[in-house]
Write a structure and sequence with these properties.
alpha/beta; Rossmann fold; single chain; 5-stranded mixed β-barrel; 10 strands
């Protein structure tokens, strides 16, 4: 089976790549990409950059380059409600995009392999759960976001790409599996914007911008240290989870 994977940032790309083995670089326009054969499948991994526009562009480029049988959105996320901790794995049961006043559900076909994975892993005692992926266009207050959410959203997590990838999957009739690992818990309200840390196209975090932001907001130093540790925890957890998931993806596109 051909499987296309989209990860937003270098740390996420590396975590996915570590679960696959050696990648052969692939020319995919402006996007970093690599290909490999592993677990009986052909994988194409793409680094999109952060946000809806970058994710949509990467998904379109991937599909147009070599249409996959399954798309996977993989990376980190933030917990929205208490109970989740760094390293917890969440597989999407529903994907919504948060607007100014409402939440738009994306009618994407989610691969049954995702929820089968949740059931198996939970039975084995792993911290893996199904949940609602809430895609936002920017860093938002988790407390305010939680207060706006419908009460039936279970295990909601916030991220910035899966909604756009889901739209591309719908347009091309490709099933999607979205899997994320918590890197920051619900109590961790980020004290900065991505524009303060990233280059203009939201592709990479730039050290000089981080240092400038620290000079302006020295109060964020403890938070950046916490996030560095929790992101490493999330990366290890993502690699481990995907190493368990990929061998179980046979015929996932038909489930």
């Amino acid at each position: 089976m051909k499987i296309g994977i989209i990860a937003a940032m270098p740390d996420e790309f590396r975590a996915v790549a570590d679960s696959l083995g050696t990648l052969t670089p692939v020319s995919l326009g402006e996007f970093r990409a690599g290909r490999c054969s592993s677990f009986g499948h052909e994988f194409l991994l793409v680094e999109s950059g952060m946000g809806l526009d970058n994710a949509a562009g990467a998904a379109d480029a991937l599909v147009n380059h070599d249409r996959p049988d399954l798309l996977i959105s993989a990376g980190f996320c933030g917990a929205v409600q208490a109970g989740m901790q760094a390293g917890d794995v969440v597989v999407a049961k529903q994907i919504v995009i948060a607007g100014e006043s409402d939440f738009e559900e994306i009618p994407v076909r989610l691969s049954g392999s995702g929820q089968n994975f949740v059931v198996r892993q939970a039975a084995e005692g792993e911290r893996v759960a199904g949940g609602v992926f809430v895609t936002t266009s920017a860093i938002v207050s988790k407390k305010r976001l939680s207060g706006r959410m419908p009460g039936h959203y279970r295990n909601p997590v916030v991220e910035m790409e899966s909604g756009a990838i889901a739209i591309v999957a719908v347009e091309h009739g490709i099933p999607l599996l979205a899997i994320r690992v918590v890197s920051d818990d619900a109590a961790e309200e980020l004290g900065f914007t991505l524009h303060e840390l990233c280059d203009a196209d939201m592709r990479r975090i730039r050290l000089y911008k981080v240092l400038l932001t620290i000079l302006k907001k020295p109060r964020i130093i403890p938070q950046l240290v916490r996030l560095a540790f929790s992101s490493r925890t999330a990366a290890r957890s993502l690699t481990a989870a995907l190493s368990r998931l990929f061998p179980a993806l046979e015929n996932a596109s038909r489930r």
